[in-house]
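Quick question, first post here. What does this chain look like in 3D?
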Amino acid sequence: MQCPVACSDGKNREILARILLHVAEDVVDSPYQEQEVELSGSACGWRVFLVGTYELVIDAKNRLSIPFSVRRKLDPERDGHSFYVSPAQRRGTLALYPEKYFERLRPALPEETLSEHTQQWRQFELSQTALLDADSQGRILIPERLLKRAGLGKEVVLTGAHDHLVLWNRHEFEEFENRQWEQFPENRSKAMQELRTLAAARSSAESTA
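> Answer (accepted):
Ran it through. Tokens below.
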């Protein structure tokens, strides 16, 4: 099932918080276990829940093999056959979104309804986004210019990020991972508290609507 219109980013965060409140205990308590949980629905229609850490190598032709355990989670009819790649929120990384899901997240909006800042950002983001078709072996060809802009080398890590994937330089992910492990109890406690607060606020808003 697909929704006729895409959700706003704020709505997505609230919905995600409620979902994570139910699944975070299992996922966080076993951070190295590549668990695969498929969500049966949301305000944006069906989506996959992508987790895991995969050490990969980008070949001489800039091809990256999407792991089979990720590919088998994707339904061509629901999610499409391809991935969109664009700069991720974290500097030095790229984000990979299932084709149809990404298109639902980026609806066409009349420019006159947007501020100049948002117009320019949207133009920039779309100019830095590419649609990548996977070959029969599950390999995608990542544009050289995006790899250079992100500063990505040949040895990379691909991580699950709920509804998309994130491509890191391997050594940078290892540094990030080590920092998180050093403060794991504190970081987990703070994150869970925020998620509970968001879920409670969302539930309260729904009950008074």
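The domain at 9-208 is CATH 3.40.1550.20 (Chemotaxis protein chec).
Residues 1-9, 11-44 have pLDDT under 50 and may be disordered.
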